[in-house]
Structure formats: structure tokens, C-alpha cells
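User: Please predict the structure of the protein below. I'd like the answer in C-alpha cell form so I can feed it into my own downstream comparison script.

Assistant: Understood. Taking the following sequence of 76 residues as input:
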Amino acid sequence: LWQSPSDAALANAAGSKSYRRRKARTVFSDYQLQGLEKRFDCQRYLSTPERIELAAALNLSETQVKTWFSKSKNEA
């Protein structure tokens, strides 16, 4: 059954509790951090194949590597 956005908002306001759980924060190992930092020092931007390769080498997901690089660029 399709609901308009206003119908969905009313259902949520009426007490329907469908909260999305936030993904747990990633805790990187020392080995993973060293690998990420070493690569970041040499190269701030990774292509998709480079990101996939680094993620596989560090046993991380491509998204985790992408997010780490993005946040590191913002902090620099």
C-alpha cells in the first residue's frame, strides 16, 4: 500500500516506532591505521581500483577506506 509523504509522517507521529539503527563506529587496528596513513601521506586521492586494492589488503570495505580518506582530507 502506497502512502503519501504526509500519510507516512502522520503514522510516525502517531507512535509508529520504526527507528533506523546507526551503524557501529569502525575501530581500526594499528595495522590498518598505519596502512591508511602511509598511503594517505603519498596519495590523497585514490581511484576506485586503488581503493578496492587497499581495502582488500587491509581487510576493510571499500566504503570504510573511502570514508577514512574523506575525513582525513577534511582534517588536513
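That's the full C-alpha cell string. Residues 28 and 60 are 9 Å apart (CA to CA).
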